[in-house]
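Why does residue order matter? Because the sequence determines the fold. Keep that principle in mind as you read this record.
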Amino acid sequence: METKERCWGSRGKEMEAYHDKEWGVPVHDDKTLFEFLILEGAQAGLSWTTILKRRGGYRKAFDNFDFNKVVKYDEKKIQNLLKDECIIRNRLKVRSAVLNAKIFIKIRKEFGSFDKYLWGFVNGVPIQSNFKSWKNFPANTKISDELSVDLKARGMKFVGSTIMYAFMQGVGMTNDHLMSCFRYEEIKKLSVCS
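Structure:
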Protein backbone atom coordinates (compact mmCIF):
# COMPACT_ATOMS: atom_id res chain seq x y z
CA MET A 1 0.00 0.00 0.00
CA GLU A 2 1.42 3.33 -1.10
CA THR A 3 1.60 6.05 1.51
CA LYS A 4 1.62 9.67 0.43
CA GLU A 5 3.59 12.26 2.30
CA ARG A 6 1.29 15.03 3.45
CA CYS A 7 2.10 18.39 4.97
CA TRP A 8 0.18 17.68 8.15
CA GLY A 9 0.71 13.95 8.43
CA SER A 10 -2.37 12.10 9.61
CA ARG A 11 -4.93 14.30 11.38
CA GLY A 12 -8.14 12.48 10.63
CA LYS A 13 -10.26 11.92 7.56
CA GLU A 14 -11.69 15.46 7.33
CA MET A 15 -8.27 17.08 7.42
CA GLU A 16 -6.81 14.53 5.02
CA ALA A 17 -9.60 15.08 2.49
CA TYR A 18 -9.32 18.85 2.86
CA HIS A 19 -5.55 18.71 2.38
CA ASP A 20 -5.75 16.40 -0.63
CA LYS A 21 -8.62 18.09 -2.48
CA GLU A 22 -8.95 21.73 -1.41
CA TRP A 23 -6.06 23.32 0.47
CA GLY A 24 -4.04 25.49 -1.86
CA VAL A 25 -6.24 25.00 -4.93
CA PRO A 26 -6.81 28.42 -6.53
CA VAL A 27 -10.41 29.54 -5.95
CA HIS A 28 -12.05 32.13 -8.21
CA ASP A 29 -15.72 31.62 -7.33
CA ASP A 30 -17.13 34.41 -5.15
CA LYS A 31 -19.49 32.11 -3.26
CA THR A 32 -16.64 29.79 -2.30
CA LEU A 33 -14.44 32.75 -1.39
CA PHE A 34 -17.22 34.02 0.89
CA GLU A 35 -17.47 30.59 2.50
CA PHE A 36 -13.74 30.55 3.25
CA LEU A 37 -13.89 34.11 4.57
CA ILE A 38 -16.64 33.20 7.05
CA LEU A 39 -15.07 29.88 8.05
CA GLU A 40 -11.61 31.36 8.58
CA GLY A 41 -13.15 34.07 10.77
CA ALA A 42 -15.02 31.41 12.73
CA GLN A 43 -11.75 29.54 13.23
CA ALA A 44 -10.12 32.40 15.15
CA GLY A 45 -8.81 30.89 18.38
CA LEU A 46 -9.86 27.38 17.35
CA SER A 47 -8.45 24.58 15.21
CA TRP A 48 -9.29 24.14 11.54
CA THR A 49 -10.35 20.57 12.37
CA THR A 50 -13.08 21.98 14.62
CA ILE A 51 -14.38 24.12 11.76
CA LEU A 52 -14.19 21.32 9.17
CA LYS A 53 -16.29 19.08 11.41
CA ARG A 54 -18.95 21.82 11.51
CA ARG A 55 -18.72 22.85 7.87
CA GLY A 56 -21.94 21.09 6.95
CA GLY A 57 -23.68 22.82 9.82
CA TYR A 58 -22.35 26.17 8.63
CA ARG A 59 -23.54 25.53 5.10
CA LYS A 60 -27.03 24.78 6.36
CA ALA A 61 -27.12 27.63 8.89
CA PHE A 62 -25.77 30.23 6.46
CA ASP A 63 -27.90 29.32 3.41
CA ASN A 64 -25.00 27.55 1.71
CA PHE A 65 -22.99 30.76 2.02
CA ASP A 66 -25.24 32.71 -0.33
CA PHE A 67 -23.99 36.20 0.56
CA ASN A 68 -27.13 37.74 -1.00
CA LYS A 69 -29.18 35.91 1.65
CA VAL A 70 -26.74 36.33 4.56
CA VAL A 71 -26.71 40.10 4.06
CA LYS A 72 -30.46 40.16 4.82
CA TYR A 73 -30.23 38.34 8.16
CA ASP A 74 -32.15 40.23 10.83
CA GLU A 75 -31.90 40.10 14.61
CA LYS A 76 -34.30 37.14 14.83
CA LYS A 77 -32.15 35.12 12.40
CA ILE A 78 -28.99 36.06 14.30
CA GLN A 79 -30.56 34.91 17.58
CA ASN A 80 -31.53 31.59 15.95
CA LEU A 81 -27.96 31.15 14.71
CA LEU A 82 -26.67 31.71 18.23
CA LYS A 83 -28.74 28.72 19.34
CA ASP A 84 -27.52 26.47 16.50
CA GLU A 85 -25.25 23.78 17.98
CA CYS A 86 -23.91 22.92 14.52
CA ILE A 87 -21.87 26.14 14.32
CA ILE A 88 -19.57 28.07 16.64
CA ARG A 89 -22.06 30.09 18.68
CA ASN A 90 -19.87 33.10 19.26
CA ARG A 91 -21.94 36.28 19.15
CA LEU A 92 -19.16 38.41 17.63
CA LYS A 93 -18.34 35.84 14.95
CA VAL A 94 -21.97 35.33 13.94
CA ARG A 95 -22.62 39.07 13.75
CA SER A 96 -19.40 39.59 11.80
CA ALA A 97 -20.57 37.10 9.16
CA VAL A 98 -23.61 39.31 8.45
CA LEU A 99 -21.57 42.51 8.52
CA ASN A 100 -18.88 40.99 6.30
CA ALA A 101 -21.54 39.92 3.78
CA LYS A 102 -22.56 43.57 3.39
CA ILE A 103 -18.98 44.68 2.82
CA PHE A 104 -18.32 41.68 0.55
CA ILE A 105 -21.19 42.84 -1.69
CA LYS A 106 -19.86 46.42 -1.71
CA ILE A 107 -16.45 45.14 -2.79
CA ARG A 108 -18.08 43.09 -5.57
CA LYS A 109 -19.86 46.20 -6.83
CA GLU A 110 -16.66 48.24 -6.75
CA PHE A 111 -14.42 45.67 -8.46
CA GLY A 112 -16.90 43.57 -10.46
CA SER A 113 -16.23 40.54 -8.25
CA PHE A 114 -14.62 39.74 -4.93
CA ASP A 115 -12.33 37.44 -6.89
CA LYS A 116 -10.94 40.34 -8.91
CA TYR A 117 -10.39 42.41 -5.76
CA LEU A 118 -8.77 39.58 -3.82
CA TRP A 119 -6.47 38.22 -6.50
CA GLY A 120 -5.26 41.74 -7.24
CA PHE A 121 -3.17 41.46 -4.07
CA VAL A 122 -1.03 38.79 -5.80
CA ASN A 123 -1.37 40.17 -9.35
CA GLY A 124 -3.62 37.24 -10.24
CA VAL A 125 -0.84 34.67 -9.77
CA PRO A 126 -0.47 32.37 -6.74
CA ILE A 127 2.70 32.74 -4.69
CA GLN A 128 4.85 29.59 -4.87
CA SER A 129 6.44 28.93 -1.49
CA ASN A 130 9.40 26.63 -1.06
CA PHE A 131 8.97 25.45 2.50
CA LYS A 132 10.79 22.31 3.57
CA SER A 133 9.55 22.33 7.16
CA TRP A 134 6.67 23.71 9.20
CA LYS A 135 9.30 25.59 11.19
CA ASN A 136 9.67 27.94 8.21
CA PHE A 137 6.01 28.98 8.08
CA PRO A 138 5.24 32.57 9.04
CA ALA A 139 2.06 33.50 10.90
CA ASN A 140 1.46 36.26 8.37
CA THR A 141 3.11 37.95 5.40
CA LYS A 142 3.38 41.44 3.94
CA ILE A 143 0.52 40.63 1.57
CA SER A 144 -1.73 39.21 4.30
CA ASP A 145 -0.95 42.38 6.29
CA GLU A 146 -2.02 44.55 3.34
CA LEU A 147 -5.18 42.52 2.73
CA SER A 148 -6.09 42.65 6.42
CA VAL A 149 -5.55 46.41 6.65
CA ASP A 150 -7.67 47.03 3.55
CA LEU A 151 -10.54 44.78 4.68
CA LYS A 152 -10.52 46.33 8.16
CA ALA A 153 -10.56 49.82 6.63
CA ARG A 154 -13.67 48.77 4.71
CA GLY A 155 -15.23 47.65 8.00
CA MET A 156 -14.83 43.85 8.00
CA LYS A 157 -14.31 41.97 11.25
CA PHE A 158 -12.28 38.83 12.03
CA VAL A 159 -9.90 39.58 9.17
CA GLY A 160 -6.61 39.98 11.04
CA SER A 161 -3.39 39.28 9.19
CA THR A 162 -2.97 35.75 10.57
CA ILE A 163 -6.56 34.89 9.63
CA MET A 164 -6.03 36.37 6.17
CA TYR A 165 -2.84 34.36 5.69
CA ALA A 166 -4.72 31.14 6.51
CA PHE A 167 -7.43 32.33 4.10
CA MET A 168 -4.84 32.94 1.37
CA GLN A 169 -3.46 29.43 1.91
CA GLY A 170 -6.92 27.88 1.79
CA VAL A 171 -8.01 29.60 -1.44
CA GLY A 172 -4.72 29.01 -3.22
CA MET A 173 -3.34 32.54 -3.30
CA THR A 174 -0.21 30.92 -1.96
CA ASN A 175 0.97 27.34 -2.47
CA ASP A 176 2.24 26.53 0.98
CA HIS A 177 2.35 22.76 0.63
CA LEU A 178 5.70 21.52 1.83
CA MET A 179 8.01 20.70 -1.06
CA SER A 180 8.08 17.08 0.10
CA CYS A 181 4.26 16.84 -0.01
CA PHE A 182 2.70 14.98 -2.93
CA ARG A 183 0.36 17.95 -3.53
CA TYR A 184 3.12 20.54 -3.92
CA GLU A 185 3.83 19.92 -7.61
CA GLU A 186 0.15 19.23 -8.40
CA ILE A 187 -0.88 22.59 -6.94
CA LYS A 188 2.04 24.31 -8.64
CA LYS A 189 0.75 23.04 -12.02
CA LEU A 190 -2.79 24.21 -11.19
CA SER A 191 -1.45 27.62 -10.32
CA VAL A 192 0.06 28.02 -13.77
CA CYS A 193 -3.31 27.27 -15.38
CA SER A 194 -5.45 29.52 -13.20
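Residues 91-111 form the longest helix (21 residues).
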